[in-house]
Design brief:
Layout: E1 5-9, H1 14-25, E2 30-34, E3 49-52, H2 60-73, E4 76-81, H3 84-91, H4 94-97, E5 102-103, H5 108-115, H6 117-126, E6 134-135, H7 140-146, E7 154-157, E8 176-178, H8 181-192, E9 199-202, E10 207-216, E11 219-232, E12 238-244, H9 249-261, E13 266-275, E14 280-287, H10 294-299, H11 304-313, E15 329-331, H12 333-344, H13 363-372, E16 379-380, H14 389-401, H15 403-426
Parallel strand pairs: 1-2, 1-4, 2-3, 4-5, 15-16
Antiparallel strand pairs: 6-9, 7-8, 7-9, 10-11, 10-13, 11-12, 12-15, 13-14
Helix pairs in contact: 1-11, 5-6, 12-13, 13-15
Length: 430
């Protein structure tokens, strides 16, 4: 009998925990793997086995050897890379990997289009999909001459994953902002010393809207839209609170046009900025992996990890799992708390973007929003009654690593709560 055991990489990350849970709830045995021994994925009751591997950022070759060894020793039939670093590293040795197990990922050419943000933008422009105005060059003088035509502020982003052959870089950040030409010139001058310049893009106004998707050779199986309600930091970053949205024909058309053009096969997350005034979606990026908010799909009624398994294994698609509930909200509590504390300290962990239309909340409003979201019906990435130990593990790790900061933050939160209560008592109708 052929094994149906699946190896899930990146077990220390939230999306991998959701993948482990989704597969386990469907009865698929999971080998959870990670470069570190104490993590949320290993604590899940749905991880039938656990294993360690070399961090691909340390050595891609050793990482691949570790994975091949795990596949052989544990009779693995499929590998699901839940984080991009492992996805890119495994794809670079796909021929070797697929001698032993199926890699649940788009083909190498298609994947490169998603990893390389410049190629993503170029295809989107060809297809008539709105994208930010973008400058891409490694020539510092050319960059300085062309930024005259840009409106500020601008965003600076690495072209793609540092482990990928065509986007390798040493920039070591996800996004930075420059408010003025002078600030941009200074930042580019420093970054040029690494041998690589980032993409420069005009800042795009709007709310963050994403689509968690599953496509079968260019044909949509799942398009699940959701809004990023709150991020870490509050000025924009990782989603810490998100909500499923009703189906949107305009969004579905754009997503399908993009992924159909590349005959996409597998899971993907497509991210946009939506400008309500203009009713316009602007493409930010395409990720060829499970989104960090994969837990939201599970709680909304779509077991995206299991559907992905069925797609790559050639199994019939369970059509009863293709509908989702609108208005479901999911929260990454630790990230939400960190965003609040950074805001109260007057820090954003990423420079605030001037001229943005959405103003940051006041301190009292930020505290109130944080507390009011402890309400019935709220779902949490890490805390699940049917699988409690990952939440316990994350809380323990968090408190150990930042006990002093957390204690101070809790005291600060307590003071803000008291001030808010006094203010409400003085102004009962506010």
């Amino acid at each position: 009998m052929t094994s149906n055991k699946v190896l899930v990489t990146g077990a220390d990350q939230h999306q991998a925990l959701a993948v482990i849970r989704g597969l386990g709830m469907a009865g698929i045995p999971v080998l959870a793997a990670s470069p570190q021994s104490k993590n949320i994925g290993f604590a899940s009751r749905y991880a039938a086995e656990t294993a360690l591997y070399t961090n691909p950022h340390t050595s891609t070759e050793r990482f691949v050897c570790d994975i091949v060894d795990l596949v052989k020793r544990h009779a693995i039939s499929m590998i699901i890379p839940a984080v991009e670093s492992t996805l890119v590293a495994l794809d670079s040795h796909r021929d070797l990997i697929e001698e032993h197990a199926l890699l649940a990922a788009p083909d190498s050419t298609t994947l490169e289009w998603a990893v390389d943000k410049l190629k993503t933008i170029q295809l989107a422009e060809q297809l008539g999909v709105p994208v930010p105005k973008t400058l891409a060059t490694n020539d510092l003088q050319e960059a300085l001459s062309k930024i005259e035509d840009f409106q500020f502020p601008v965003a600076l982003k690495p072209r793609g994953n540092s482990l990928h052959q065509t986007t390798a870089n040493q920039l070591q950040f996800k996004v930075k902002y420059a408010r003025t030409r002078q600030e941009l010139e200074r930042m580019l001058g420093i970054m040029h010393q690494t041998g690589t310049l980032p993409l420069v893009q005009e800042y795009v106004h709007g709310i963050g809207v994403c689509a968690a998707t599953l496509f079968d050779r260019g044909q949509p199986i799942v398009i699940l839209p959701y809004q990023r309600l709150r991020e870490l930091p509050l000025t924009g970053g990782v989603s810490v609170l998100r909500k499923t949205l009703p189906p949107d024909e305009q969004l579905e058309t754009i997503v399908t046009r993009l992924l159909q053009a590349k005959q996409w096969h597998g899971a993907a997350m497509v991210e946009f900025k939506y400008d309500h005034d203009q009713n316009r979606y602007t493409l930010m990026e395409v990720n060829g992996r499970f989104p960090a908010s994969t837990a939201l799909s599970l709680d909304a009624g779509i077991n995206l990890p299991y559907l992905t398994y069925c797609l790559h294994a050639g199994l019939p698609m369970p059509t009863e799992q293709l509908a989702y509930r609108v208005g479901v909200q999911e929260r990454w509590l630790q990230g939400d708390f960190r965003a609040l504390m950074a805001h109260l300290r007057g820090k954003t962990w990423r420079e605030a973007v001037p001229q943005a239309r959405a103003r940051l909340p006041s301190n009292s409003r930020a505290v109130r929003d944080f507390l009011l979201d402890f309400r019935p019906g709220m779902h949490y990435d890490e805390f699940k009654w049917h699988d409690p130990w990952p939440g316990v593990r994350e809380t323990q790790s968090w408190l150990r690593s930042s006990s002093r900061t957390t204690a101070g933050a809790l005291r600060r939160l307590g003071r803000w709560s008291q001030n808010l209560s006094r203010s409400s008592a003085r102004n009962p109708h506010s």
